[in-house]
Write the structure tokens for this entry.
Amino acid sequence: EGDNNEENEGQRRGKGKPRVLAVLPCKVVLYVPGLGVRPFHFVKTFEGSASQQAVYEEYAQGAVVSALNGFNACFMAYGQTGSGKSHSAFGPQGILDRDMSEGGPIGSDYGVVVRAAVEILDSARQARSAGSHTDISVSMQYIQVYNENITDLLGGNQVAIRTGEGGKVVLQGAAEAPVATRGELIKLLRQGEARKRYAATAMNDHSSRAHTIVVFHLLHKTGKDGGALVRSELHMVDLAGCEQIKKSKVTGQAKREAVGINSSLCVLKKCIRSLNEDKSHIPYMESKLTMLLRPAFGGSSRTYALITGSTDDKHMEETLQAVRFGEECSMISNNASQAASSLTGAAKAIDAALETCESGMRSLEARGKTHLAAFKKLQERFASLSRKRADLQMPQKSAPAAVAAVH
């Protein structure tokens, strides 16, 4: 009889639904049917009441620091429709209709994309006015990926992907607009917002139907005569909401859009899984989205991911998928391009990379995954960075790598 009771309990657990048990400072604990209690580790977690500034400082500011020091960087937001993903990226609906002053703090509602762009512009202006022999020129591209078509949100043209020198992704046909002030930034973001694809679904009455990417290009001129040039890029990615079609209740064109969104996200997951399994072939070419994000996951970029989810029982399947995606992202190890133009900048970038490696190794150790090739790659990366850091002989600081927000 005891054996039967245990079997029945196992069946009940297997048939249950996932649910969030706890949101702790660096992990989200879920009950997963068939597995029981399962922790998912992150560098930082946030409750739904967290301020936009707090999310920016923990999630995206490290990428901005990297870009300002000559490194390529990327941050992306991933989560189900209606979980706060685009709100965290840009802010509430209509936020870009407001004018922004050129100095001082910005409004509390602005999301991480706007905050990152403002910090870059303010830093570039301060560098020029401080007489530091450093000049940073900034330009911006803004595109969307919709049903495997790439559109320039600034000019409306169709965009083709080309591979440039050193494997760099070139957006042929996308306008690259110079931007130097907050006013110019808001004007460009408004232009892009007017061309974005939105539609109402059962999960969100203003759902983004495309992946959107803001690219900041930074040209650093250093030295008294400006002879030293360093180029860096910051990609800011708002992925379209992952969703189950039966829950979003979309039909017709909206259903075809959802299929396209889910298909490109599935390819992205395949690429991440292939990287973690150290496979010789990574299927980047299977979707336009993964072709664009190839440098972020398999190249020379410092990459951060914001995972958004809901604690509502009816959205638990999507939340479970989202935290699993974040966990797989944290297992990837990249080699950031060493392009910093100063000792201090190089030290900050190496410190941030060391923290990323440590976080990834802690996460794998906590889940008993030290046998994976990804763990060995992180160990090798950490050892190499430690040697470089020792050569600099400066005090170490740290920066975040990946976070989760659960509402």
